Amino acid sequence: MTEYAWFAALCDDDYEFLGVPDASLQSSWQHCRDIVLRAEENGFDNVLLPSGYALGIDATAFASAIAVQTNRIKLLLAVRLGELVVPQLARQIATLQHIAGGRLVINAISSDVPGETLSSDARYRRTTESIAVLRTLLRGERADFDGQFVTAHVEAPRIAVQYPHDPVVYFGGLSEAAQQCAAESSDVYLMWPDTTERMVDVMREMNDRAAAFGRTLRYGWRSHVIVRETEAEARAAATRLLSRLDTETGAAIRSKSLDSQSAGVARQTELRDAADADGYVERHLWAGVGRARSGAGIAIVGDPDQVAGKLREIRDAGIDTFILSGYPHLAECDLVARHVLPQLH
Questions:
Q1: Residues 177, 208: contact at Cβ < 8 Å?
Q2: What is the extent of the structural domain holding 216?
Q3: What CA–CA distance (Å, rounded) separates 103 from 178?
Q4: Residue range 12-37: average pLDDT?
Q5: pLDDT tens digit sequence for 242-283
Q6: CA-CA distance, 314 to 2, in Å (whole number)?
Q7: Residue 65 maps to which CATH number?
Q8: What's the chain's Rg over C-alpha atoms?
Q9: Which of 159, 193, 257, 260 can pair with 298 through a Cys bridge, CB separation 3.0 to 4.6 Å?
Q10: pLDDT value at position 259?
Q11: Among candidates 337, 128, 290, 317, which has minimal Cα distance to 221?
Q12: Calpha distance 91→222 (Å, rounded)
């Protein structure tokens, strides 16, 4: 079954014009709540609750509040591994899962802890160890683990013993260390936009890596969408989105993210640099969003048939999870739900 998710802009990442702050779109409980409620109303299966350190609002606190205001939609909580000791994190997640009635899924983030810098290999090793211990405790089992970064000799928290579960873990990254971590630890390998040919190559490699651990993976795609009734209107909306951005502001926004030097961000930059004069990597993949965003920096742009067709192409290549977003997030959520989701379902 294919899953279509939306994005709750918890990290001060909502604009009418990229790079131009708008107080009405700034991350807040009210604004982000409205996005999630609209995504559920519009029929999305899941919603990503992203996490930043300096930016926006706390994803875990937000998840606790929004869980009791939603009924059906799954909550994909971004968890910055390394910021909390693992047994404490296990208790937190187990409690949230209980509040959400089993709708919580995890997006594991292997980011540097604010104020420290680890090598890529060390950071992903810490993530692999953290996920291993976290899974054990959330299954309600005792953890006895002595790793390079994580040591745990502890019983599972009572809430996990009473309501045990093995969390679905989403994870992404293009470096060698990230891919090994994903192959060993994740359930859904999440990719940022790329050409379909390149994406298929990555999935083939990840299948081989996961098989070495006796595991299989599902695959996800995280991108933006700009859909309008005609292709010309969609392209005009993309142009308008960038119309007030200057180079210095865009660079400053990109540099704020703790993952701004990652291999995945480098690939998005490579695609943006290779795009045509209007920012298109190919006819319906537009790299303009990446001028003011670190991370997934490409949007699918077109009319309803074109956007749905591109998503079907990606789905047929092996993706079964899509995490979509658009600017402003409430307005584009409505447009995607009206024009695209009915074709996909």
A1: no
A2: 3-344
A3: 26
A4: 95
A5: 999 887 776 776 666 545 567 778 887 788 787 788 989 999
A6: 11
A7: 3.20.20.30
A8: 19
A9: 193
A10: 57
A11: 317
A12: 29
pLDDT tens, residue by residue, 33-46:
999 999 999 999 99
Two tokens, residue 326: 């658009």
Identify the three-state secondary structure at position 18.
coil
The strand pair at 218-227 and 299-302 is best described as: parallel
Token pair in block for residue 240 = 């308008």
Query: Mind spelling out the 3-state secondary structure of 105-131?
Result: EEEEECCCCCCCCCCHHHHHHHHHHHH
Name the DSSP letter for residue 155. Answer: P
Q: What is the pLDDT of residue 333?
A: 98
Count structural domains, the chain.
Answer: 1
Contact 70, 39 (CB under 8 A): no
328 upstream amide cis, omega within 30 of 0:
yes
What percent of the chain is modeled with pLDDT above 90?
Answer: 81
Residue 129 CA to residue 148 CA, distance in Å, equals: 8
Place of tokens 């926006």: 56
- Distance, CA of 260 to CA of 21 (rounded, Å): 20
CA separation for the pair 156, 136 (Å, rounded):
8
